[in-house]
Design goal:
Layout lengths: L2 H4 L13 H12 L10 E6 L2 H7 L14 E7 L9 H18 L3 E6 L4 H11 L5 E9 L24
Antiparallel strand pairs: 1-2, 2-4, 3-4
Helix pairs in contact: 2-4
Bound molecules: flavin mononucleotide.
Flavin mononucleotide binds next to strand 3.
């Protein structure tokens, strides 16, 4: 099965710590993402401090799994002059690249939504001392606790030819 069809959100992990080389691979994948005007409006914070991870797990109701991981990546969206309105899409592609590469490396991860929810990004920025740009997303990472089966979602009725049909 192709990589994109294998990916799914993983929220439960074993205790095995992710090797630094694998984190490096995830970051390489992130920076290979397409971006508007190739503006690459991103920075990445690898968080491996347990106290910080626990703090980040309180950023939103959907961030709880961060208190159970040993590593996470926070995508930071930088200010950019080239194509600022496209920056969120650029950071989304980088986030997805991390998740896909994680799947390929036998890791599991989940995208924790941050931007544009102000109360979330201001909280995270305070924890991580981000003074420029905004926290965009957080990715909890670990070795999957169990083999999760993927439900395929392809739905022919959502595909239209030439014109949209109700
Ligand atoms: C923008 C965005 C925000 C998300 N935020 C959260 C979140 O805060 N917590 C969480 O557990 N999952 C989050 N997810 C993961 C979705 O719940 C998940 O992708 C969706 O249910 C489909 O499941 P799948 O990823 O296993 O295919 C988010 C996904 C996206 C794209």
């Amino acid at each position: 099965m192709s990589l994109v069809l294998k990916r799914k959100s993983i929220r439960k992990y074993t205790n095995k710590v992710i090797e630094d080389e694998k984190i490096q691979e995830l970051l390489k994948a992130a920076m290979q993402a397409p971006s508007a005007n190739n503006q690459q409006p991103w920075e990445f914070i690898v968080v491996d401090d347990q106290a910080l991870l626990t703090k980040l797990s309180e950023a939103s109701p959907g961030a709880w799994m961060l208190k159970n991981v040993t590593k996470a990546i926070v995508v930071v969206m930088k200010e950019t002059e080239k194509s600022p309105v496209m920056a969120p899409q650029d950071c989304a592609t980088a986030t997805q690249n991390i998740l896909l590469r994680a799947t390929e490396l036998g890791l599991g991860g989940v995208w924790i939504g941050v931007y544009p929810k102000q109360e979330r990004y201001t909280y995270i920025e305070a924890q991580l001392k981000i003074t420029k740009g905004h926290a965009f997303s957080m990715i909890a990472l670990g070795y999957p606790d169990a083999d999760e089966t993927v439900t395929l979602r392809y739905d022919k009725s959502r595909v239209h030819t030439n014109h949209y049909q109700e």
